[in-house]
Structures are given as C-alpha cells and as structure tokens.
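On clarity, I found the account of how folds are encoded harder to follow than it need be. Since the whole study asks how a given chain folds, the encoding of that fold should be made plain. For the editor and my fellow referees, an illustration may be useful. An entry of this sort, consisting of the sequence and the corresponding backbone structure tokens, reads as follows:

:::
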Amino acid sequence: MAMPAACLRLIRLAVPLLLAALPARSAEEVLGPVQQASVATPTVAPSAAKTTPETPAPETPTPEAPAPEGPAPATLAPETLAPETPASATTAPEITASITSPPPAPPAPINPLEDAVRLERIKAAIGAYRRGALAEGDAIAAESDDPAAKALLEWAALRTGAGPIPFARLEAFLRNHPDYPATGIVRRRAEARLIAEKKAPAAVRAFFQSEAPVTPAGRIALALALKAGGKAQEAATLIRQSWRQDNFSPALEKLALDAFGDALTRTDHRLRTERLIFAESATAALRNAARVSADYVVLAKARLASAKSRQPIAAKLITAVPVSLRSDHSYSFLLAQQARRAGNPEEAAKTLADVPRDPGLLGDGDEWWTERRVIVRQLLDDGDAATAYQVAAGHGAEDAAARIDAEWHAGFIALRFRDQPGLALEHFREAASIAETPISVTRGAYWEGRAWEAIGRADKARAAFERAAEHPIAYYGQLARARLGLPDLPLRRAEPASLMHLPGYQGVHALYRIGERELGAQLLLDLSQRLESTEALEALAAIGQREDDTRTLLALGKMSLQRGFPLDMAAFPTSGVPDFPVLGDPMERAIVHAIARQESAFNPTAVSHAGARGLMQMMPATARETARRANLPFDWPRLGQDALYSAQMGAAHLNDLLKDWRGSYILTFAAYNAGSGNVKKWIDAYGDPRKPEVDAVDWIERIPFYETRNYVQRVMENLQVYRHRLNQRTAYLIDHDLKRGGRQD
C-alpha cells in the first residue's frame, strides 16, 4: 500500500538530516576480469587425488592472474551471455614475533540510504524483472522520484534480461550513466542488439565512437558498418582479427563468412582452427579446417584425438597426415606431444627446436608453452638440465602470465641445475619487467635475490629480498622476510573514505538491505574496479563485513591486492569458517582457514569439476573414510551444505594427514590436494623435504602439477596470515613451517 504523500514528504525531509549526522565511510578498487560477477554455485579447483600430470588444468600458467590466488573467482565467476560456441601434528615450539598491525576495527556504521517505502518499491520492481515481467517492473520503477533509485532499477532491468530489451534503451542507459558500475553485460547486450535489429551503419559507427567492441557480435557489426561506409580495408582487418580470436555462434559465423569470406585468408582459417583445437571444440575446428584444405582436416582430426587422450594415439592417425603438411607447425606440436606422452621428452625437445617463437605463426603461444613446460619438467626428472633449459628459454609465450612463468622456469634451471646465476639473473629480470601482481613481483624479486647470493653479491641480494618483502602476505615475500630475519607480519589497514557521491554506491546498500545479495555483490565488485585508493576500498569492505558476506569480502580483497592495494583484512576474512568442535589431536585452526580459503573461497556449497564438495572440498571416498576414523556420521549431501560439518570433517582429515606425514605441513598440504600416492612418488623423485639436506623451497618448485605447486604456496602464505589474525600474540616463521616434521620436531 502506498504511503500518504504528506508522510513521504516528511521522510524526504528527514532522511538527508539523518544522513548528515551519520559518519561516512569508504572503499575503493578492484581488478579486472571479475567484471559482471555472478554468485551462482561455483566450480572450484579439484581437491585430493584429483590431479594428473597430463591434465591441462594443472599445466595452465596463471601466476599473473587471480586464479593463482585460489578460487577467488570460484565464488564470483565472470558473468557472460549464453556461450556463442563452443595425522597428529607434533606441536612445534611457537616463535613469538612482533605484531605490527592494529587490532581489527569494527566496521563503521552504514548509512541508511533509502527509506522503507523506497526499499520496498525497489524490491518489488526487481522481483518483477526477475520474473520477466518487464512492463510491471517498469511501472513500479516509474513511481520513484529518486534519481539513485531510478538508475538502480534501470540497471537491474537491463541486467536481468527481463524480455527483449531494445538497443535504444540499452544505449540510453550507457550514454546517460557512463560511470555506473557493472554495465559490462548491458554493453554486451547492446552489441548483440545491433545485429538483431540490423541497425543502420551510421548508428553502429556512432555507438563505437568512444569504445571499441567487446563481443564478436559487436566486432562484426562494426566491420559491416565500416564496409558500408567505404572503409573496406579497415573492416577486413577487424574481421580477420576477430576470426582468429573469437568464438562465433553458427549464425554469426555464417554472417561473417557471407560478408567477408573473400577477405579471410588460408592463414586466418588455419590459425582459427588451431585455436579451436586447443579449446577442444571439435565440431567447429573440423568445420573450419575444411576451409583450409581437405588435407588439413586429416591433421586436425589427429590433433583433436591427441588433445582428448592422455596416452599416445594410434600411429595410423599420425601416418595418415599428408606429407605436404608434415612441415606444418601444427604437425610439429602433434609429434612433440606424442613423444612426450610416450616417455621420450628428448625427442619432443628435438621436434620443438625447429619451431619458431613467433606467436603469430603458432596460433596460441601460451598453449605451446604449456606443452613445453611439461616437457621441461620431464627433462629435469631425467637429469637433462641443458636440454630442459633450451626448451624453456625457446618459448613463444604471449600472455604476461605465461611469459613470466616461462622466464622463471629458464632462470630456475640456470640457477639451481646449471650453476649459471648470471644467466638466471637475466631471466628473472625479464620476468620482473612484466610482473604486476604481488605473486609475480615477489617471485621475480625473491629468485633474483637467490641469484645474487650465488654470484656473491650480498648487497644486491638484500636489495632484491627487500623488494619482495614489501609484500608480506605473498609466499615469496614471506620467504624473503625470513631470509632478511624479519619475524613480523605487518598486516596493512586504512581508514575508510566516503563514497556517497559515487554512482552505484547507494545502490549497493539498497540491494543488500532488500536481500538481493547477488546483485549487490556484482555492483560492489565492479564499483571497486573504478576506485584508486585503499581508503575507498575499505569502505566497500565495510559493507561486506556488515552484511557478513565473506565470499564477496574475500573476492574484493583478492582483487584489490592484485592491483596493488593492500586490503589485507578483507583478503583474509575470519568469518568463513564456523567454530567447529575439534576431533582428535589439537591442530592449528589457522590451517583450516588457510585450506578453506584456497579450496572453496569459503563457499559452503561449492562443487568442483571432479566432484569435491563443500567448504573443505572433500571427495566422497575421502569423506567416508574420514567419518569412519573420526566416528562421525557420514552424510554426503550435508557435506555440501553445512559449513560446520564440512570444517569438522576437513579438520579430521587434515589431522590424519599430519599423522601420516609426521607433522610435515608441505606434505600434508600437497596430499590434501593431490593425494598421498602422488606425494610418495614425489618424495622418491625429489627427496624428503623434512630432511635437512633437501631444500624445501626447491622441493615445492619441483612438484610436477601446476595446481598443486600453486596450492601448497597459497596455503602456506594463507597460514602465516591466519595465525596472525586468529592469534594476535604469536606468529610462526614460514621457514620453520617448511621444515616441519623433521627430527628436530
């Protein structure tokens, strides 16, 4: 029922006075690809015994992206339109350290941005939009006289996709609200409508005057408009780039071919086929290979068979490839991959020696590096460091993450296996020159310090370690601090700023207040990407704290750290694990927090691709055996719903592993992720990291699964911070944790 107009006038007069009397707050920033985030049930990194050395996922280079920091975006995955295509631990002596961070301050009070009537109207309108009742939602929205509420409701209408929204309405919102957050999906829908409505070329060119297209549909629309305007060469260049890199629906593919088939070359079709093969989009790859030649279809079939199998494929598929294509780079990739899978990395290396480094000739230089990395590690295991170095140094990686990873591998081999610290230094410096995130920056600086140590320049080594130590919550930064003898772990905090003036900020509050947490999180995270100070970001973090939205708080913290803003408290929230009763021997609760942060990003309903479930991401067989040992009831559905039950079960399993590995944290964390069977193999291959003569840092670097290497490093760094956060009086040094389980313990 509507409130009398007189009452509404009184409320409108009173609310600004109330707001003026309340303290303001802050927030600011965030990182890239989580733009239109969705909080649907995520899929996360597989847990115990879910990784194999041949799995593409473990060998995907991501140290430069949020992924290395664990499944942060597992909780908030980028939102897109429908795809267009395709163990009792031995208690070690505590090492006390100075605590330099202030005690966590309670979140500042949040200003009530909307009165009850407006909130109810917002809730009703969004409810209508969610049901697809666009006209009903618009009618409710029209009753609002508040600009902030109107903007919020129009944003919600366009995002929820309530009915076929015309281009004019989408374009009007983007034009009238250029600074509104989380408009990526609005823009993508607008670009799709350009094609659907067959907009005039002039209108298309005008739409893209200030911003380039972000979708395949947008690029095709602009290419068509350019061609119609007499800019055929510019249109051809755009469509050729799009053809090589984009995924198309069958309808878009036909449109592109009908309009620009003559402009697309054999090379364009070949490079598109290569990308589709790497993506294992078999139907699209074979359809496109036919545009290259009938012979190329035979090669594409062999490549696709190799991509799907972890074992060598039938020889007849390889011998069937026509002689005319046996000098093709795609054929070289096939031979190298098959040689490596047959246990002959030396032969694979010979094949790669003649392959050019130019990514433009390879189709996807990053995928080539992924294959090279597996070969490099096999060569190291075989004791052939010289060839391993050549394969690593000869990479043609494109993406910053892959380039950093490749340069680091070359440097690591030169330093630790070939006794060439000067050569290693060149590679570490090259990696550092393109590093931006804390993980990559500290990785390069730490290993640069190790190289300077080997050269005998203690002064240069110290300077490099000090650069790494500037990032105290990153694994390599923590290693550097230990090397410098710095026992403290300084967590950083800033006072929140006021963001009341920013478009969308009031909408974040309103969405949370009416229970629209998913939309609120999306708006909050995108807003953070537009902010440029830690103080402003702290204001957004305060909302997450107030609303007890641990997953969004964590995503905000991680994304901020990636951009260089030290939102340490948000990045390591303590509210994600309930206070569970301990079963068995005492164990650090910080370990459970460290594992849960990495496994599920504190999502109690997370389900991985491999079937692991819940806060602690346990597999069915592991959970059943753990329940039996701990004398707990085994309830598989409950494990993916009840955070307390999952925490208790996960802690019990960790206790079992700690017993199995005599208190070794490295081995326990590795076994939690990859299974004890793999850990035993790695001990046989690389030595026992509990022994004094084995370098524990090197041992972790030798783990053959990318996912597990990254996992152990992330959990180890998480542990240092959670000890600090959960127990302000004590801290363990990371170098002590790395050697736990030895005789001294």
About this structure: Residues 706-726 form the longest helix (21 residues). The first strand starts at residue 37 and ends at 38.
